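Weekly modeling sync, notes
Attendees: S.R. (lead), two postdocs, one rotation student

Agenda item 3: backlog of single-chain predictions. S.R. asked that every request posted to the team notebook include the full sequence so nobody has to chase files. The rotation student volunteered to paste the first one in as an example of the format we agreed on. Action items at the bottom.

Example entry:
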Amino acid sequence: MDIAGGVAAYVAVDSPVNQAMGLGMADPVAAAAIQELEEFYLGRGTVPLVRVCPLAHPSLVASLSVRGWTADGFENVLVRAMRASDSEAASIAADVEIREVATAEERDLWRQVAAVGFSWPLPPLDAQLALGEIVVARPGSRLFIAYLDGLAAGTGEMYLDDGVAWLSADSTLPQFRGRGVQRALQAHRLALGAAAGCELAVSEAAPGSSSQRNMERAGFQVVYTRLDMVLSDSARLPEL
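Predicted structure, as returned to the notebook:
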């Protein structure tokens, strides 16, 4: 659904893809638009989530707050300019082998490894496995598995669009952490992005996380911190 200059996406109840983004990037956001957004999600049995860019019009946060929305978390968006040396694909960890996913069996393996890496020390959530199904089915998405000692150790994704390489789904199984898996996946995807003519690489990470530190070592810099906001329990419509 198009709303307030952005998009509200819905896939299924409890899907991690259910979220609104891009709101308020061009014009002020009225409280009536937020009410419409709430009705869109609550009517489908889903808690509304809005990803707020700090460059959005200030009225977005004001309209959300007045209707009982609260902060749910933060995410750093990092950017890196491509370098001529990226296309050389220098191996950072010689014992890490990177393979691009090509078969249905590899796609299922990628989904399982990504979910376990993200959920550890807890078992994977159904929502994480469902998100993996969406990622592996997305047209244009390139998936990679890192192998150590002949075993699947980590995952990464790359999506190319208009000169930008979007790197995501960086996950490492706990028993392989600290051995350069993510650095090798980053270097491999940066090389492919540079070879494809991309000028920028973009990724996201939780503030202060090991993923952010890995990205910064690879030359990424934080360009802004995104705020995630959800409708509080007390503010939800009576039918829920």
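Discussion: group reviewed the output briefly. The radius of gyration is 19 Å.
Action items: rotation student to repeat for the remaining queue; S.R. to check formatting next week.
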